[in-house]
Amino acid sequence: MVMVGTDQAEVDRRLRRGELSCPCGAGRLAPWGHARTRTIRGLGVLRPRRARCPACLATHVLLAVSGLLRRADAAEVVGAALTLKASGVGHRRIAARLGRAASTVRGWLRAFAGNAERVRAAFTALLAELDPVPGPVPPAGSVFADAVQAVGAAAAAARRRLGLAGAVSAWQLASAATAGGLLAPAGPAEWINTGWPLGAGR
Ligand SMILES: [Zn+2]
């Protein structure tokens, strides 16, 4: 289940209006306090809304998708470029494959390379928060590739632990978790708190 709201206020509004259905299919979610506050090093403080289904009595943690909707396409394309680069493809071939200008792709790759160590650290911390026993993420051979891998591992853990629907990709998550700042010169210092993406869990 993905709770689509542009920010926490929007999620709350939709919740109060009874617009969010429980995955059980039998009930509309109602406000049920908040989930515990989580501080994620390098990312910020999360205080997700909790909701309860009156039909099955399950509770769910609702997370906002700030920035996600607007940036979804861009996040996907940029993410595809970063993934290709991490596997050794050069920027011209990436540009041709994605139908973007080579100079644009090179700009993305340089910006991400500049943030790579901070991205790696932030998403490794997020992974540890989502999954206390994640097992080691094997080195991918470069800081750039390690960072791309950390994003993927955190997204996979988010799906496992929060019950996220497949509708939200690793790069959408990364974009939302960093408030669109994956490529920003300021890097993680500007990164989130209410922008934490997605779905639901227990
Ligand atoms: Zn239910």
Describe the structure concisely for a colleague:
The protein has 6 helices and 5 strands; from the N terminus they run αβββββααααα.
SSE layout:
Layout: H1 8-16, E1 30-34, E2 38-40, E3 44-46, E4 49-52, E5 59-62, H2 68-86, H3 91-98, H4 102-130, H5 143-162, H6 170-177
Antiparallel strand pairs: 1-4, 2-3, 4-5
Helix pairs in contact: 2-3, 2-4, 2-5, 2-6, 3-4, 4-5, 5-6
The site of zinc ion has 8 residues, from loops.
Structure description:
The chain has helices spanning 8-16, 68-86, 91-98, 102-130, 143-162, 170-177, and strands at 30-34, 38-40, 44-46, 49-52, 59-62. The chain is mainly α and 202 residues long. The strands form two sheets. A three-stranded antiparallel β-sheet has the order 1-4-5, with helices on one face. A two-stranded antiparallel sheet has the order 2-3. The protein is elongated. The termini are close together. Mean pLDDT is 72; it is low at 1-6, 40-44, 65-72 and 188-202. The site of zinc ion has 8 residues, from loops.
* Strand order in the sheet with the most strands: 1-4-5
The fraction of residues assigned to DSSP E strands is: 5-15%
User: Could you report the average pLDDT, rounded to the nearest whole number?
Assistant: 72
**Total number of beta strands:** 5
Q: How far is it from the N-terminal to the C-terminal residue, by CA?
A: 12 Å
Bound molecules: zinc ion
Radius of gyration: 17 Å
Question: Based on CA inertia axes, which overall geometry fits?
Answer: elongated
Helical residues, percent? 40-55%
Q: H/E order of the elements?
A: HEEEEEHHHHH
Number of helices: 6
Low-confidence stretches: 1-6, 40-44, 65-72, 188-202
Largest beta sheet, briefly?
Answer: 3 strands, antiparallel
Name the structural class.
mainly alpha
